[in-house]
């Protein structure tokens, strides 16, 4: 281990200790999704760094999540109950937590069902924003796959159909346009394609999905993002949905080739992203995840990339010093998607997979 690696380990230890001391304080107020993110992070560290002490920390944060569930009215993935359900599902699937996921999530599922069926939402605002509906569809997809009984499968099938119809209602081309600032939550088209492709595989409402895709085929095949990072994101979505659109396979293949030939990974890393764009939500970490996923899932469309280069770019970011020396910045970015937790897990993943 070189001096730089020793510095990183010491820095992460300091940041983790700071997080534990500040966020496990009985007087501190943490959102349910923050508590879940910290729990996920420390469960992974307990296994990847072989540190059983972190499991106790993860358990504490998870207990806080469970205590908060009955008080949460928000059903979104980003800040509410659907996000909790996805996180809990992941923990059970990865065997960090034991139990029947359908029993664990019964209260959460019932709350989301009532909100979706009766069109209730945050503070009574209607309708549900379409960007939230896409992520809710992903939650429904995961829960449908996890259900064992036909009755529960039917429950999630009907809820999926209803949510798809809400998403499709008055869906405008503007919704699919690129946002000039890269973020996984700012560009709806790739997320839409990725989630719809998963719903399609369930074969529960495909004739309707075919019509939805047909109606939007022009905007899908004419989309050519300005940012190379958004091109990569869109490429990932197009590759996912291509098997669902047999009659447009030639057009999709042509557009995929066009996008792929005009994506420069080094340009993303050094021109589009500055020294602080390292987080999962809007930076290098999510780019790495997409490159890795393409390599694993779709090797014919993968890119040659240098994991060591990405690791170095992330580890030399200015965000680490800001985390250590600026309490306000630390509080804002001690998160999983928009903070150092996701970045460090990305670094560990690179080390475990490539270095």
Description:
This protein is mainly alpha-helical. 66% of the residues lie in helices and 0% in strands. It contains 19 helices and no strands. Helix 4 (81-93) packs antiparallel against helix 6, helix 7 runs antiparallel to helix 8 and helix 16 packs antiparallel against helix 19 (340-353). The chain is globular. It starts with a helix and ends with a helix. The model has no long low-confidence stretch (mean pLDDT 93).
How far the N terminus sits from the C terminus, by CA atoms, comes to: 12 Å
Following the backbone from N to C, one meets helices and strands in this order, namely: HHHHHHHHHHHHHHHHHHH
Structural category: mainly alpha
Question: Helix share of residues?
Answer: 55-70%
Basic shape:
globular
Mean pLDDT over the full residue set: 93
Strand content: under 5%
Largest sheet properties: none
Number of helices: 19
Unreliable stretches (pLDDT < 50, length at least 5) are none
What value does the Rg take, in angstroms?
21 Å
Q: Which features would summarize this protein structure in a list?
A:
single chain, 355 residues, 19 helices, globular, mainly alpha
Short summary:
By secondary structure, the protein is mostly helical.
Write the layout of secondary structure elements.
Blueprint: H1 3-23, H2 32-48, H3 52-68, H4 81-93, H5 101-104, H6 106-117, H7 130-146, H8 150-168, H9 188-202, H10 206-215, H11 217-221, H12 228-241, H13 249-261, H14 265-272, H15 284-297, H16 307-315, H17 319-325, H18 327-333, H19 340-353
Helix pairs in contact: 2-3, 2-4, 2-19, 4-6, 4-7, 7-8, 7-9, 9-12, 12-13, 16-19, 17-18
């Amino acid at each position: 281990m070189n001096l730089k690696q020793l510095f990183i380990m010491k820095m992460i230890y300091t940041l983790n200790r700071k997080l534990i001391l500040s966020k496990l304080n009985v007087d501190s107020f943490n959102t349910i999704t923050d508590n879940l993110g910290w729990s996920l992070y420390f469960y992974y560290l307990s296994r990847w760094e072989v540190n059983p002490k972190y499991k106790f920390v993860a358990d504490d944060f998870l207990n806080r999540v469970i205590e908060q569930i009955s008080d949460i009215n928000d059903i979104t993935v980003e800040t509410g109950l659907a996000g909790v359900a996805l996180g809990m599902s992941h923990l059970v699937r990865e065997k960090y937590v034991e139990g029947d996921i359908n029993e664990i999530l019964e209260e959460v599922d019932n709350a989301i069902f009532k909100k979706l069926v009766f069109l209730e939402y945050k503070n009574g605002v209607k309708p549900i924003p379409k960007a939230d509906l896409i992520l809710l569809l992903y939650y429904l997809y995961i829960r449908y796959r996890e259900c064992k009984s036909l009755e529960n499968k039917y429950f999630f099938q009907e809820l999926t159909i209803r949510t798809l119809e809400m998403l499709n209602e008055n869906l405008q081309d503007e919704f699919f346009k690129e946002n000039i600032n890269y973020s996984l939550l700012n560009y709806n088209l790739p997320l839409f394609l990725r989630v719809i492709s998963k719903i399609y595989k369930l074969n529960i409402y495909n004739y309707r999905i075919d019509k939805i895709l047909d109606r939007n085929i022009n905007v899908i095949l004419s989309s050519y993002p300005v940012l190379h990072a958004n091109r990569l994101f869109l490429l990932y979505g197009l590759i996912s949905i291509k098997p669902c659109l047999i009659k447009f396979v030639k057009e999709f293949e042509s557009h995929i080739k066009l996008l792929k030939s005009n994506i420069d990974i080094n340009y993303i890393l050094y021109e589009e992203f500055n020294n602080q764009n390292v987080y999962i939500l809007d930076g290098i970490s999510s780019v790495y995840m997409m490159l890795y996923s393409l390599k694993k899932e779709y090797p014919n469309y993968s890119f040659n990339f240098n994991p060591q280069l990405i690791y170095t770019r992330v580890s030399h970011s200015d965000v680490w010093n800001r985390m250590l020396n600026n309490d306000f910045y630390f509080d804002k970015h001690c998160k999983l998607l928009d903070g150092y937790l996701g970045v460090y897990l990305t670094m560990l993943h690179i080390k475990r997979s490539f270095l």
